[in-house]
Write a structure and sequence with these properties.
Number of strands: 7
Order of helices and strands: HHHEHHEHEHEHEHEHEH
Number of helices: 11
Oligomer: single chain
Distance between the termini: 22 Å
Radius of gyration: 17 Å
Largest sheet: 7 strands, parallel
Strand order of the largest sheet: 1-2-3-4-5-6-7
CATH class: Alpha Beta
Structural class: alpha/beta
CATH architecture: Alpha-Beta Barrel
Length: 292
């Protein structure tokens, strides 16, 4: 969602560029959602990934929190209302200070409080919660436990080491992370914003658990240049990750037991359209009920 907005908005990149788009170009957010739905997406995610109190406060914009959350909800609803078949809407509980930086996470108490603030804004308007891009066991467990209080299904998604998908970016084992969030009540385990190859390795580790699995990889060469950098202009896309090659990874993920397939950064509607062609092999889990 975010990278697609970068390509279309043509706004100057700022540390809060996706929040800027929500504020200044909400119609563009609606259009991106619609294009993903037209491509076959059964689930769309709120475009509020960067709208956390911590990130906003860093740039003295904390007063915009509720308005930006509302804008993300309205954009998703507007996109769904315009479609013949309405997809599910996933609320998003992201890493609070920033992505891929497990060492920078907040204290346990602060994380609980902040995730609760986000969940309170979203839970009445979404069908499930997606705790995504979780880079450590602690933040995954906290976000999952808070999301569970909503009574909605909770999918917890991890970002893994780019060279070895057996480990989170924190260095902790993916299998231990999975067991920890299952104990908190997560109904699905996913891998996201990681290279497709590392995503495959992570799914191999999770397959023996026989739980609901999913994957939505990114198309970056690496996210390492982003460490300590405020904007995504330092990241490069992998030109070889075409819609067709991405769908080949999707086939592998299906063979490993994944039933939820999608895309993260640099994976656009054209990639989702190819994933949709695999749809006869993909089943949305029965425990997901439309909350609309």
């Amino acid at each position: 969602m975010g990278q697609e907005l970068v390509k279309r908005a043509k706004n100057p990149l700022t540390p809060l560029w996706s929040a800027d788009v929500l504020r200044d170009h909400p119609d563009l957010v609606v259009n991106v959602h619609r294009d993903f739905i037209k491509a076959g997406a059964d689930v769309i995610t709120l475009g509020s990934y960067a709208v956390t109190p911590t990130r906003l406060a860093k740039y003295n914009r904390q007063d915009e929190f509720k308005a930006l959350q509302k804008a993300a909800i309205n954009a998703a609803r507007q996109a769904c209302n315009a479609m013949e078949l309405s997809p599910l809407i996933a609320g998003t509980l992201p890493p609070l200070p920033g992505s891929y930086r497990p060492s920078e996470r907040l204290t346990s108490q602060s994380s609980h409080e902040e995730y609760q603030q986000i969940a309170e804004q979203q839970y009445k308007h979404v069908d499930l919660f997606l705790c995504e891009t979780m880079a450590s066991i602690e933040e995954a467990c906290i976000s999952t436990s808070v999301a569970m209080k909503s009574g909605l299904p909770v999918w917890t998604s991890f970002t893994v080491n780019e060279k070895n998908g057996s480990f989170l970016r924190s260095g902790e084992l993916i299998i231990e992370a999975a067991k920890a969030v299952l104990s908190e009540g997560a109904s699905a385990l996913l891998i996201n914003c990681s290279p497709p190859e590392a995503t495959t390795q992570a799914l191999c580790e999770l397959a023996p658990l026989e739980e609901t699995l999913g994957a939505y990889a990114n198309g970056f060469v690496t996210v390492e240049p982003y460490q300590g950098h405020a904007t995504v202009d330092v990241l490069q896309s992998r030109q070889e990750i075409t819609p067709q090659t991405y769908a080949e990874f999707g086939k592998v993920w299906l063979s490993l037991g994944a039933t939820i397939l999608g895309g993260c950064c640099e994976i656009g509607p054209e990639h989702i359209a190819e994933i949709y062609n695999l749809k006869e092999k993909i089943l949305i889990p029965n425990n997901i009920q439309n909350h609309q």
